[in-house]
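Data availability (excerpt). The following record was deposited with the supplementary files.
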Amino acid sequence: MQTADVIVIGGGVLGGAVAFYLAKQNAGRVIVLERHSVAQGNSSLAAGLLTRGRFKPYLIPMVLETYQAIQEIEVIIGSSLGMRQTGCLYAAFSPVHQKEVRELVSVSSQMGLRTEWLDIIEASRRVPWLKLPRRAIAAFMPEDGYIDGYSLASGYIKAAKRLGVEIHEHTEVLSICKTGQRVTGVKTTKGDFSASLVIDSAGVWAGMLAYELGIGFPMAPVRSHYWITVEYPLFSPLQPFVILPDARAYARPESHRLLFGFRETQSVAVSPRDLPKKMNGYVFTQDPHGWESFLDGVPEFSKFFPLIEEIKISTYIKGLSNYTPDGNFVLGALPSLDGFLAATGCAGAGIAMSGGIGRLVAELATGRTPFVDAAPHRIDRFGSIDPCDPAWLQRCADARSAKITG
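Predicted structure:
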């Protein structure tokens, strides 16, 4: 049996971030256990929008921490992670969404973020594919960027390894072990590991590991998907990414192609019991190829992007992200269980929030005063829940449909 001070389950962007910050805080012997290869799961499928603007002010420092982490990682590993700091453009036409964008700008400005108002001519100059109605408003956040999810997740892992963290790939955690009300380690396909602390950051698979301990994480795996066009002269990697609440859409450059996704009216949730061990090749029973969602989203999106009616689609990417009903995360401890922390429930913001989540959970693990309040992300804030209950799954799916920010 191997012994560690801390075991981190999962080698994705959150597991990597937690391990990186544990190493920075000298948490002792830290071991990351990954079922497959690090950074190869849903983290690698994310759109990677690093939007700083948030309606909840307490989330903004967590995004800013990710930007800080990227800078630190690049110094440690000696290479760039490829973040493109192009800025983010929010555009809205309807009164209700204009009000939301103004509120977002107000909160962001109060938190010290740079924001600019653009007229529609300037907005269209910066984003040539974007067509805005005359009465539309456009807010620009020039410091925002986007990053490839695989690049960031692997960056955390590489930096953590340089700082002394041990990475065990192809080591599947079969169960979390406990004695009485204390977690003592894990059973894996490569033997048992004991530890003073186990951190469950296994992404969409985190819930079932906890459920076997009698813990119902307040989240559900919900489909997150997007499309990428063929190359076209109107697209450039130097252009800002765009969020269009009226079209329930977001879009960003993917080299000289355009990556875009919709907040569908009926999001698709999956029972944690039905998750595959790998997302590759997984087929959703509802709208398996995403065409219903695509056709539902095109009419409104075409008002801002008329070219969608004729341009060819080259790629369709689908994955899963854990959504919670309130858009907060699933972080921290349970009062009734010692030696266990959660680092999951990212609500579709795992890439953007990874630095903040990693730092917060590492501070909880090492007994430091958290840099942000952990209370909004408590595991038990909804009371006792059944994460496999269809009504609960729908509640979490609805949360994705209502999402506005990136």
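Summary of structural features: The chain is about 30% helix and 25% strand.
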